[in-house]
Amino acid sequence: MAAEDLIAPSILSADFAKLGEEVDNVLAAGADIVHFDVMDNHYVPNLTIGPLVCEALRKHGVTAPIDVHLMVKPVDRLVPDFAAAGATYITFHPEASEHIDRTLQLIHNEGCKAGLVFNPATPLSYLEYVMDKVDMVLLMSVNPGFGGQSFIPSALDKLRQVRQMIDASGREIRLEVDGGVKVDNIAEIKAAGADTFVSGSGIFGKGQDADPHRYDSIIAKMREALASVGG
Fold it and tell me: 0.90 exceeded by the pTM?
């Protein structure tokens, strides 16, 4: 049975001056998961947000799952902080952990779901040894570090490979894609095997429009495109 399609707006593209309101509006428009892009200006050349923002959104009243993508090195120090702040999923890059299995165990021990993230040129071989410990696989369809980049087409082949691996495992593992996901390519991405779709600028745009309902039509169009794909 195919997993439910989940739309995960990346708050990296939201208006941070009114972040709580932005998240409320995008969830009211039908989004499923709040996606955090956590960058440390070390593993990737940018600096974004930390656990305090996650905690603030929970205190604001956000109850939707929060999906924390750690683009940081080292990883383990931040895992307990994000877990305490209210994260649901915590995903990390295998290159950023000295002991991948241990980091996955740490995330689970902190009460969160765990996942691995693969950059466009990172091999999938890491997955072979930890398939029984991941709840999510996140494929980057851009190089990590900045929002607003264009989708890298080779990610579709990689998606198909991971979908085969997940199906063969018989486990319930979400397959997430992050980078350049928009209304006009989300159906193609689903057809390749994804079931969780991160979109930043594709949903939030430039964050200039004050209309709180501006996300309704974008997410509705995404749902329509996803529904057009069988399976």
Answer: yes
Q: What count of other Cβ atoms lies within 10 Å of the Cβ of residue 60?
A: 12
Among the listed residues 37, 40, 67, 135, the single catalytic one is: 37
- Kindly report, residue by residue over 142-195, the tens digit of the pLDDT: 887 766 678 889 999 999 999 999 999 999 999 999 999 999 999 999 999 999
Dig out the tokens for 199 from the structure. 């979109």
DSSP for 113-157, written as a single string: EEEEEE-TT--GGGGGGTGGG-SEEEEESS-TT-SSPPP-TTHHH
Query: Judging by beta carbons within 10 Å of its beta carbon (0-12, 13-18, 19+), is residue 154 exposed, middle or buried?
Result: exposed
Active site residue 37: yes
Whole-angstrom Cα distance, residue 151 to residue 181? 7
Q: Respond yes or no: is residue 157 known to be catalytic.
A: no
Q: How far apart are CA 201 and CA 161, in angstroms?
A: 27
SS3 201: helix
Going along the chain from its start, the domains and CATH numbers come out as 6-227 (3.20.20.70)
Catalytic residue among 5, 40, 135, 178: 178
